[in-house]
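lol so apparently i was supposed to do this last week
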Amino acid sequence: MSQAFTTLIPNDKIRSRISELAASISADYAGSTEDNPVLLLCTLRGAAFFAADLVRALTVPCELDFIKVHSYFDDVNPSGIPVFELGREINVTGRDVLIIEDIVDTGQTMDLVKRHYTEHGAKSVRIAALLNKPSRRLPGLKDMVDPDYSGFEIPDLFVVGWGLDFNEKYRLLPDVMVYDPDAV
Ligand code: PRP
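anyway here it is w/ PRP bound
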């Protein structure tokens, strides 16, 4: 009998890494003001958990809003076409935008989001991702979607927990775990 779940990154390591990321982000955005705070855009649903901890550890003026992107998979586009479901209309003109993401995988989601807000007048668009899977990146997207703030670089394993799901299950697991749905 094999195990369905194996801990990859335990809770305490995630929490301390988020504190480090928050310190870096706060230092880099030290110039932000109450009049022009950093605009934090959390991608629903998975990143809500990471965002909740990260945002509360920041020490610079910021605003939080939410976006949602859905990927459609079919035979013609097996890697999925992402489209905005929420947040396309957010006014980012002149704003420093920080996208908060749970995982950058193929990079298509962050490519769409970063290009969209850049083209709509953001002063800057950066990415903070809890997890990064660079081995999965689509050719041509490598540099463009690399997180500016990356919690953990992980190999190509299927992970759940800390916001990441399998068919909407296991998001609430307190650790990032490798999941094997075929294990019995
Ligand atoms: C997952 C994840 C990222 C995206 C990464 O979202 O949360 O947003 O996929 O994949 P990519 O780099 O290949 O584009 P999902 O659509 O599963 O939504 P969820 O956050 O609601 O689970």
